Structures are given as structure tokens and as C-alpha cells.
Amino acid sequence: MNASSCDVAIVGGGIIGLSCALYLREAGHDVVVVERNDPASGASRGNAGALAFAEILPLASPRIIRKAARWLFDPLGPLSLPPAYLPRIAPWLLRLWRASWPSHYRANIQAQVALIGLAQAEMLDMLARTGLDRHLHTEGVLEVYEGADRFAAAQETARQRLAYGIESRPVQGDELAALQPGLAARFTHGMLVPRWRNVDDPQALAVDIGLRAQALGARLLRREVRAVEAAAEGGRLRLDDGATLQARRVVIAAGAWSHQLSRPLGDPIPLETERGYNTTLPPDALDLRRQITFADHGFVISPLTCGIRVGGAVELAGLKRPPDYRRAQAMLDKAKAFMPALRTEGGEQWMGFRPSLPDSLPVIGRARRHPDILYAFGHGHLGLTQSAATARLIRDLVGGQAPAIDLTPYRPARFF
């Protein structure tokens, strides 16, 4: 493919980059997506398939800070940090702690509410207009708890959601058993969140979004971007084969690697990676009615067309440390104990990088010194959920229109 220049070059072919390509191509822009691997083969491939429109509470929160000390002492628990990585991540952890202060936490919830509200509207509209709503499931999510005390402790989350119009319904006894047969008796209470949505296969959806963009004329360039440089008009991508790609606008949506491209541009964004693990079992491994969240254990089990996926947790260990698949096995062992009918044979283990910023909000906006270079990364575990909203905002910026929501909370300059 000859692609020496274009209107908009998008670095990254994950769910964010592909969604941006679709929105920009629909608006008439000449778009090239530059991706070194198969599209949607990174974090977009291995997530739980959740459109988490009820997930408004940041990771950087008082509740997580309270739990973190206990979790960190369990190397296979919901939150893990290898001791050798602590010196490198210490500044990021300090920022996360500051983001959990009450005033910052409340502001971050407001920002998350705004972005999630836009995300729901844009995702549902995008799926409808492209015919991709066949991927959508509307059963909600069932959060389950062990005993009345643990359920009572979770009521604060329900109250905070309700304050923003997100309803949830407590269930127990026969109703809980009907919503999901076969739960271990230790799970006595649950919370059904109807606003939650899921997709049948997150990778398939992302690939289909990319194919829709290509059908409209977007181009895919299979190369690695070594650097993004400002140019007299727009930006320039230096590729691994020595070629360059000139663009009037550049969108950096390279997930966990994005900060490596933003730093030389004068924006050392404090991006870390939440390494997530899962095991995907055959589709007949369990009669699973909807996604189940084991909130106190930090993982979920999801029904997908590609199989039953057991995954979650957070490992803060950067991009280079080898995977520790004991974490995937630990979640699978728990899932078997929690749902005894689960057949655990024949699974495929996976580890992926979820790009995370310390205040739990993504970076969406222009580079500080180069207005023709835009950032769209750092969505943590909400990349799928916030992908269409991010694409809408990037389309607004590229087209010179007022953004659909105030971008102040997501601006790159908030870290400097």
C-alpha cells in the first residue's frame, strides 16, 4: 500500500484506534491506521466483553487504598505488585494515592460520569447505525457477595451509583439462584445492575468496527511506529522500515505503549499498565446466564461466543516482565470453587496490557506543544466501554467542532 501522506494518521489498531478510524472516516477524513500486529490483537482481544456503563467509580478511590495493603501481600490476589518493580512505579502510586483524596475523588467521579454517559449514547448509536448491534447483550451484570456483612459493605457503591441515576437491585435466595443457578452456597446475596451491557466477543466487535472503517475507505498500514514528530503542517510518523507517513493530524491511540511516543513530544504522561489475566474455556464449560462479578475477589466470569472467560485482577508490573500465569490459574481455581459445575479443562490462558493513568481517567486532547497531534489513551479496563465516546471526541477535535463534553478533566496538561 502506498500511504506516504493522509489527512489523519492513527497510531494503534485496538478498539480505540479502530473506533476513531470509523468516526473520522464517516466524517469524510482520509484515514490511515498504523498497527504493527493484527488489529484488535492486544488488550482488545482479551477483555471480559463488558460495556460497563455503570462503572463510574475510579480505581483511585478510598476503598481501593484501604484494600490495597491487604491485597498486595497476596501475590496471586486481586492486586499484585512485584517488589522489584516498586522503585519504578513509586511516583505513579503516589499520584494514585493523591487522586484518591476526597476532593480529587469526587471530581474524578464527575468526569467519569460525563464520559460514561457519552459512552453509552455513542456506543449504542454506533452499533445501531453500523448493524453491529448483533454483538450486544442486555442481561446486565450480577455482582455476588458472601454473607450479609460483605453485602452491606457493598451498599456504598450502590448508593454512589444511584446518586447518578444508575440503578441496581438487591437479590438473594430463590431469585439469586434463578438469575444464576449453581452458585456455591457461600454466595448469599447479589446485586443486579441492569444498565450494564456486554458484547458477545470483544475482539470480533473491534475487528468488525475496523472492517466497517475500511469499507468506508480507511486504510490499514501494518508497520511499527518508531516515533511521532511534529511537522510544519501536522505530524510525521517514522516507521520501522525507514519510511515516513505525513499527516495533517496524528492520533496516538497505542494503548500501553502510547507514553513512549508522547514523551519525545514534550508530554511525559505517567502511564502504567494494569496487566490483566484470563482463561477462556470452551463455550459449554458452564450454563452461564450473564456476566458474574466476584467483587471481593477481583475477577469476573463472562459468557462469550468464543467461550467462558474467567479473568480480571490487576498486576502492576510494566511491559517487560514475563507473564505469571499462576494468576490466571488462581482465578480459575476460585471460579471452580465458586461455581462447582464449571468444567475447567481445555482453557486458553492470556495476559494483556491495560493502559492506566493514576486518576483512572484517560488522556483525550491535544499535545501541549503540537495542536495537530492528539492523544486518545489511558482508558485502563474501560477501553471497550469508552471507545465510541473517545472516537466522537477525537472526531470533534479533528473537525474543529466543540467537543461533546468538557475535555478539561482529560487534558494531557493535568499531570504537569
UniProtKB/TrEMBL annotation:
Residues 7-397 form the FAD dependent oxidoreductase domain. SUPFAM superfamilies: FAD-linked reductases, C-terminal domain, FAD/NAD(P)-binding domain. GO terms for molecular function: oxidoreductase activity. Keywords: Oxidoreductase. Its EC number is 1.-.-.-. Pfam families: DAO (PF01266). PANTHER family: GLYCINE OXIDASE, SARCOSINE DEHYDROGENASE-RELATED. This is NAD(P)/FAD-dependent oxidoreductase. It comes from Castellaniella hirudinis.
